[in-house]
Amino acid sequence: MKSFKSFLIFILCFITTLSLSGCKSNNSTSKGQPLTKTEVIIGTACTISLYDNKDPKILDEAFTRLKELEDILSINKLGTELDKVNEMAGKAPVEVSDDTFLVVSQGLKYSKLSDGALDITIGPLVKLWGIGTDAAKLPTEEEIAEKKSLINYKDLVLDENNKSIFLKKENMIIDLGAIAKGYAADEVASLLTKNNVKSAIIDLGGNIFAVGSKIDGSNWKIGVQDPEDARGSSIGYIEVTNKSIVTSGIYERFFESNGKKYHHILNPKTGYPYESEILGVSILTDKSIDGDSLSTTLFALGIDKGLEFINAQPGAEAIFVSKDHKLYLTEGLKNNFHLTSSKYEIIK
Ligand code: FAD
Ligand code: MG
């Protein structure tokens, strides 16, 4: 697996070189520089940079919130709320917090909207493949068939009155890897705003939230990475104020077996990673939970169906980067995306 960190640092440095001066890390600041902190939470490097109201207590509060969310939403830790729901699969509903109920409801909404292309009951397959962990392996056909039979969002029951979640079949597993970082980014953005921060960048492993504007009031310039360039050169950039930009791609979480690459977005129907013409898809929205849900959904749907899908979602824009170096943009991005790489071509 390639290093997540190098990718993330690139994003931050790229934002910095385009719009700010310098790139700092780990709770450091000086005049004109952001106050920045990085920690690995929810399985990825999380970086928050404050450009105004540079109070270390605000950063600490934000990281406490991220850890709180990891402690309820993770399936990689024992004793989380989600873990309890999964343990009680086939047995009984489990009452959960508002956070867990909200994220699972959102996951179910997109599972329905995408007709199961995104399916948050994908957990048994995610665990089986282990992509992104040291236990990654190519499963056998039998193993895949067994786990596939457990995946079906229609067997996930939410009770709004009791705030409870029930999985109908034993051994079913909800996995929120496709959407929870988006919710976490929204929660941090709202915490920063409540603390009167008007200029900040939140970067949760590919989920960027550009809070407010640059300190001089101008737009943030957020780079879209060239998925083929591990050194971190960009295809172009988007100008935004107070927006989320989320990317799903096949170039960070994958493993290789017998010369073939297997990435982490899995097709519930086949049990294998989606075969796709997409290298990466980036989504621009007001809320990062929508961006995160849409990035995985659009990757799963492919370019044609994905464009159709996102055009029906108000307030959401997308850039698809294809393996043959073509860029497909939604209408609202055609005047906002600045192409800087000669390797890629925008399809009108
Ligand atoms: P996205 O495109 O947003 O999502 C891909 C992820 O969604 C996959 O990794 C899988 O989890 C899931 N998925 C795959 N196919 C489908 C599908 N068809 N439908 C629905 N979902 C699908 N990783 C670790 O290595 N260690 C950890 O300790 C760890 N802890 C985590 C704790 C939490 C609370 C969460 C939410 C995730 C954690 N992760 C951990 C997972 C890691 O952060 C995910 O790989 C990450 O969320 C994937 O994000 P992405 O932006 O790369 O991809
Ligand atoms: Mg996603």
Broad structural category: alpha+beta
Unreliable runs, pLDDT <50, ≥5 residues? 1-28
Strand order of the largest sheet: 1-2-6-7-10-13-14-15-17
Binned, the helix content reads 25-40%
- Estimate nothing, just give the exact number of structural domains: 2
The CATH homologous superfamily of the largest domain: ApbE-like domains
Shape: globular
What does this entry show, briefly?
The chain is an alpha+beta fold and 348 residues long. The chain has 9 helices and 17 strands. Helix 4 runs parallel beside helix 8 and helix 7 runs antiparallel to helix 8.
Itemize the secondary structure elements and their pairings.
Elements: H1 4-19, E1 35-41, E2 44-50, H2 56-73, H3 81-87, E3 94-95, H4 98-113, H5 123-129, H6 141-148, E4 156-159, E5 164-167, H7 180-194, E6 199-204, E7 207-212, E8 220-225, E9 234-240, E10 243-249, E11 254-257, E12 260-263, E13 278-285, H8 288-301, H9 303-311, E14 317-322, E15 326-329, E16 337-339, E17 345-347
Parallel strand pairs: 15-17
Antiparallel strand pairs: 1-2, 2-6, 3-5, 4-5, 6-7, 7-10, 8-9, 9-16, 10-13, 11-12, 13-14, 14-15
This protein binds flavin-adenine dinucleotide (FAD) and magnesium ion (MG).
